[in-house]
Design goal:
There is one protein chain. This protein is α/β, with parallel strands linked by helices and 299 residues long. It is built from nine helices and ten strands. The longest helix has 17 residues. The protein is globular.
């Protein structure tokens, strides 16, 4: 087993690089580095090595990996280790207006699993949002449909409940005009739902894991999620020894230390509950239009 002190590279919590910036990533991989702008201080720019000897693993985050498929062979041929988080919620269009059609997403999910193995794709049912359109019973039926259709293509599902940050709450309150109302579930309702989702997951050979929801870990068949997980990298790549330093991003987070090479306000999916985009129709679209896939930094 080889000694490994490299970095885990997150691609990316703040945007969907596989869906929208695949060519940029390919160029960065070829040149062996990326530049990252500090979101709180634009004058602070960090150079991150993407050379195989400096990367213990890539962790990709996406809702549509199909545009990224051409990069899979580059990763494998380059000796890189990696796994994917793939968010698939099947929410009504008013919540996720630009997500791929669910049937197409499921087909793409299976195709990726065939290419890289089910162990290297983590399904995210995230965030769980209660509303007049998405009741507890709706979630049970919806989750069962997705779990049955993803069975065999993934071994793990991570969930969390929506965090109503100020900007998220403002965006969701705009749905009131359409007669759609968001509400926060009480703890008993959350537990009742997760018990049902855990049973459905087990029936489909999928391990359910809770992200920053430690109060629910006492439920049978629910594990603590670590989205950036050095131990998980070791499990799927046993030849690699990873030093699992921990770096939480919020309370109850169990993530390992990583470096993110994305940028906020650059995703085009426009999900109304999004934490990473302030203004889809304005700022995010303009930043995407200014993107050059040959640049060292994403935006």
């Amino acid at each position: 087993m080889s000694k490994c002190n490299q970095k885990i590279i997150s691609v990316s919590r703040s945007t969907d690089i596989p869906a929208f910036y695949s060519k940029w990533f390919a160029t960065r991989l070829e040149e062996g580095f990326a530049e990252v702008v500090n979101p709180f201080n634009s004058k602070h720019i960090r150079t991150v090595s993407l050379l195989p000897n400096d990367v213990s693993a890539f962790v990709f985050w996406t809702r549509n990996a199909r545009p990224f498929f051409a990069n899979i062979s580059r990763l494998v041929d380059g000796g890189y280790r990696f796994y994917f988080h793939w968010t698939l919620n099947n929410y009504p269009r008013i919540f996720e207006p630009r997500n791929p059609a669910t049937e197409r997403a499921i087909a793409s999910f299976h195709e990726l699993a065939h290419r890289i193995s089910a162990e290297k794709i983590i399904w995210r049912y995230d965030p769980i949002l209660f509303s007049t359109e998405t009741s507890m019973q709706w979630h049970v039926e919806n989750f069962q449909f997705l779990a049955e259709n993803l069975s065999g293509a993934t071994r793990r599902c991570i969930f969390s409940f929506v965090d109503l940050y100020k900007k998220t709450k403002r965006a969701l309150e705009k749905l009131d005009d359409d007669g759609i109302f968001i509400y926060e579930a009480e703890e008993p309702e959350k537990r009742n739902l997760i018990k049902k989702l855990a049973n459905i997951s087990a029936q489909n050979r999928i391990q359910l894991a809770a992200c920053c929801e430690d109060a629910l870990l006492s439920i049978d068949q629910v594990e603590k999620a670590r989205c950036i997980d050095a131990h998980y990298v070791q499990n799927i790549y046993p030849d690699l020894s990873v030093v699992p330093g921990r770096k939480a991003t919020r309370p109850q987070c169990g993530c390992s230390d990583s470096v993110d090479i994305g940028a906020y306000d650059s995703c085009l999916f426009g999900c109304v509950y999004c934490y990473a985009n302030r203004d889809f129709s304005g700022r995010s679209r303009k930043r995407f239009q200014s993107h050059n896939p040959k640049n060292h930094r994403l935006i």
